[in-house]
Amino acid sequence: MPDKATYSPVLSGNSMSVTGSAYPNGNPDLPYNLPGVRNTDSVVPLHRSTPVIHDYKCDGPAPGRFVMRWTYGSNVAAKNRDPRIQVVQYNEDTFVLRQNVCVHWEAPFTYLLFGNSGALLIDSGATAEARYYPLRETVDAVITRWAQARGRRKVPLTIALTSGEDVAQNQGLVQFAGRPDTVIVPRPLEVMKRFYGLGGSWPSGRGSIDLGDRVIEVIPTPGTHRDGVSFYDPYCDLLFTGDLIFPGKINIGNDKDFVASLERIKAFIADHPVKWMFGGHIEMMFVPGRYYPRFASYKPYERLLEMDPALIDELLVYARAVQGKDTMLIRPDFVLLNGVSPDQRTSDWPSDVPNIIPPRPF
Amino acid sequence: MDRRTFLTSPAFAAAATFSSAAMAGIADAAAAAARPGPIDFRTNLPARGSFPDKWICGSPSSMDNKDPPVHVHWYNAHTAILRQNKAYSYEAPFAPLYFGNDRVLLLDEGFVQLRNDWDLRGVVDGCIDDWCRRNNRDPASLELVVAFSHLHADHFAATNQFADRPNTRYMGLTHEEMLGFWGMTNFPEQRVSLDLGGREILIWGSPGHVISEFAYYDSYTQILFTGDMFYRGRCYISFWQPWFDSMRRLIDFCDTHPVTHVMGCHVEISKDGQDYAYGMTYQPDEAPVEMTVQQLREAFAYAKTITKPGIYFTGTVFLCNQTRGTTTIDQYPYRYG
Questions:
Q1: What ipTM was assigned to the predicted interfaces of this complex?
Q2: Do residue B281 and residue A105 have CB atoms under 8 angstroms apart?
Q3: Which fold has domain A77-338?
Q4: What is the pTM of this model?
């Protein structure tokens, strides 16, 4: 945002605000009444007699942001008393759920999006047992509250995975078996392609999931997983990229597919407004190029979930660089592992990245 | 004269000029008035004991783990083995606690530092109280010696919990202080003995995983405690030649001394040889912590054939020769052609 005469973010004295926002007290140079107001619908008036038809049209991304930090486990996992699932409202129609690091170290993110005719759950977590990870119960409760606010009896639910084969994202599916008004995108790959209408056009085509005035686009993105897909939400301008692009150690399953999928994402971003990319996990620390090891149950210095879409350029450059090589490559916001163990380490530190030793919680 | 007698009163210190046998006699005589006769740790050896069928080994969801922070197993009436809970630290080290007539030796203090996170000191005090009750002793009459196998944080993290414990000595966190603690002047070859009061512990150097590591042999149970240089999992060999020499020293020892079990600090392998990757917090089908002398000999025979860095499976343990920084055993499971 421009630094205008009426207000200097630098002089705000509040650079330590939780979000690092340049305008912790609001930007006085913007108008008071912004068009995004019309995308707010849950509260007033209170008791409606007919279902609310929400307006999913907006100029630019729908308003919404995170103003908190993610739960990050604890030094002694057995003593962790954080919620098993952290539920965060991004905006009225978009929720992010994070699995507790001390229930499963992968601590995957699960996204719940609402439209006028249904809801979409993207991914399902790393733990099947509901007593450890009550995903169904939590999703049902969020849907119930949302439905009450919008005056709806039924909210059909679709469950889609960024990868059907990924055990860090498909384990919660079993909890939804037999749930009424629920469609689970079928597995494996061939059946999934047909479901999305991509039988003849995988991976170049695109599918869609219509939530009612909010049509989620399905982009085939194999590369880390054979059956990888990404989802684009044109309402919030968010791209959900699962294991393909996330701030962590990206294990490449097939480098040719990986590069092709990144090229597809890059072309997509060139054609569509994208505010942020959200991946399925966080493994990087907020120190550039540093990451948590596998199985860590205490990650107090995690990087943010949000990735700038411009990151795709850097990703593509380095994905091409590792193509055809069994190697590990460190960048500030991600690490690429091609053909090597998920525990691979390297002594090659990139010369253009500041080498900062992160604090150790121990 | 060795300094490992840990005599605290000036009168006993004077006795240090006698032979160790005479010294033990004086110590016993002085104590006899206050407590029952000494326990005999020198005949009917080895003292029998048993390992549990199953140790606590973590859980699928760590925050739902209801096991105690420390699994205390009494190998026999005078020997406890402690294991840290995997939901408290993935390293989950094993720690022997040896009781003698005069003192108690704790080897290793786990990978969690603070007492409010895990009360190792309370657990050790509980073991000492149990033992004293069974043997009609006063816990205050026993000295606690807090030492560790080697200079890595997952083996000494809780040491400071003992800083304000009376009648307690603990090892410093440098190579020099570790050697000084055992009175060594010729590491690693020199073998010293620690008298717990009728129960002798033999200690010598065992570098290779790290420089600062000891092997401990308990003459009562005849358990050889090999720390992290040889355990049922991935033996990370940082320095090959010192490690190989340390293995030879262990083999030489086994040639001349009876050994019932060889015991390391961790288990990272299943009963059927599956590797539990570094950092895992649930090992449902864990192999036993104890190994046989034969397994040690086989590993040494295998090691003789190793000429370059890499990961080698001896049938019992993985020998990770100078690989820690760059290689592991796992593959990415979703790779496709």
A1: 0.86
A2: yes
A3: Metallo-beta-lactamase; Chain A (3.60.15)
A4: 0.88
